[in-house]
Design a protein that fits this description.
48% helix, TIM Barrel, homodimer, alpha/beta, 10 helices, 15% strand, 10 strands
């Protein structure tokens, strides 16, 4: 099954043999005090740096989250979306827990966006899905409702419900991207094995595309990029087709592209080899100017 | 199913929840002209460096191959095995295509060795398995006979035959480690997907442990360590329990240890966190002396 996300001029395909979709997660004030202060002052200038870094790192889609409890998130989203679209032709993922901010972002967006996110709670489904449908967007569905189930079968049931209710709102399964919930392995040793079991269940039973917040897995641990790289490769090989991740983490992006090649989603390694040549050329250029 | 390999003082367990077994592959003259010349002159001094590097890199078992067509491999193996056992307490994998060299190595070895390797060809099985049985060793069985089958089902059949004939010679399944055959993905785009399918078939049908020459996958390609790291993580998550690999490749060893943690074979990350602390301590010591 293929999910397509579009900007004005670019279409990104998720799933069904396409390369893994890297959704750059950096445009988000969580844990960034300076950026929070800027947002509170209505200053979006940091986005220029963040967009440039995510694009340079190889992101396929950019997540845009400008949520801060002390800022006017709705106005910020309305301004951020066209600003980011002026900086890059990558499609965007409009990310907010505030429904009016999602609506403002979708209203300002040119193309077919991805919406981050809805849960399996009736109230959220009934508020968010009509907006997604009205804008012809795709949506990320988190495999939890009012609680976060640990059992893969329960997560599958929540995912099934989201796909079903989305259908009731006229959103086809290919426009629902399920998040099977990556959790910190430092807090729960079974976090990844349960995650992988959930991925396989959703792949085999629903066949929809999947994404997750990949960095959650390594939360609080040393060697986060090595853990993230291994987590992404493994998850991709069991059916994950996308991840929300910081494209500045070279080791993680390389792991995803290597796994594309290994799994036949980059036949003969054309992208892999081209990326290697570009890296060598950049190093040579840097050496020549220094 | 657990395979145990032993030196005089150390037991390494492969499989059944144990951490992935890294078999250090560096002690091998393939592609090393200087080492080849030394072996031809009967000089084994290079082993001191190679053993130290593999141990420092985190190998669990060391592969010992001193084969060179212009050297007396049998005498070299007879000398190399006690020399390596004097340098490390890691168990060894005695590696040769010459049956008399395997026999010389096993005769000189103290402990329970792993023998690398036998194929599914009747002649090789009937020559090598009696030696393995007599020495109470374990053996790597390559999933090919006189040809290298591409179809996972055919590789499974060869593996099944090896396990069966080993049983006829009194070698139990837990002492047979099957190599599902890692092949260059640069030459055959399906190499890894077929490999993974073979791994799953062998895991589900035979339940024996598995190893492979991991670096084969990235042969001839740029970015070999990143490809190797992703290949190892993915393969481990589908059932591979060991690999013959160069432990000097930090990225690859880290990927294996990260995957141990992610898959619950390093609960709470005790080994992962201890390795990180050791690395920080080593960096601090280096900074203090420089």
């Amino acid at each position: 099954m293929q999910t397509t996300i579009e900007s004005r001029s670019r279409t990104v395909v998720i799933g069904d043999g396409a390369p893994f979709c890297v959704i750059g997660e950096r445009i988000n004030p969580t844990g960034r005090k300076a950026f929070q202060a800027q947002l509170q002052a209505g200053d979006l200038s940091q986005l220029e740096i963040d967009v440039a870094e995510q694009v340079a790192g190889g992101a396929d889609v950019l997540d845009v989250n400008v949520g801060d409890p002390l800022a006017d998130e709705i106005e910020l989203m309305r301004a951020a979306v066209p600003m980011v679209q002026g900086l890059t032709d990558l499609p965007l993922c409009i990310d907010s827990s505030i429904i009016e901010a999602l609506e403002a972002g979708l209203g300002a967006y040119e193309g077919k966006a991805l919406v981050n996110s809805v849960t399996g709670e009736d109230e959220r489904l009934n508020l968010i899905l009509p907006i997604v449908a009205r804008h012809g967007a795709a949506v990320i569905g988190l495999a939890n409702d009012d609680e976060i189930p640990m059992e893969p079968e329960r997560r599958l049931e929540v995912a099934r419900k989201i796909v079903s209710v989305a259908g009731d709102h006229g959103i086809p399964p290919q426009d629902v991207v399920i998040d099977p919930l990556a959790m910190p392995v430092g807090a729960e040793p079974r976090a990844v094995t349960l995650f992988l079991e959930t991925v396989r269940l959703i792949r085999d039973n629903l066949g929809v595309n999947m994404t997750c917040g990949a960095s959650n897995t390594s939360f609080g641990l040393p060697g986060r990029h090595a853990l993230g790289a291994a987590f992404l490769a493994v998850s991709q090989s069991h059916g994950l087709t996308s991840a929300i991740m910081d494209a500045r983490a070279r080791e993680c992006v390389e792991s995803v592209r290597a796994t594309d090649f290994l799994l036949g989603q980059d036949e003969w390694g054309a992208r892999w080899i081209a990326a290697h040549r570009a890296k060598l050329a950049a190093q040579a250029a840097q050496a020549a100017t220094s």
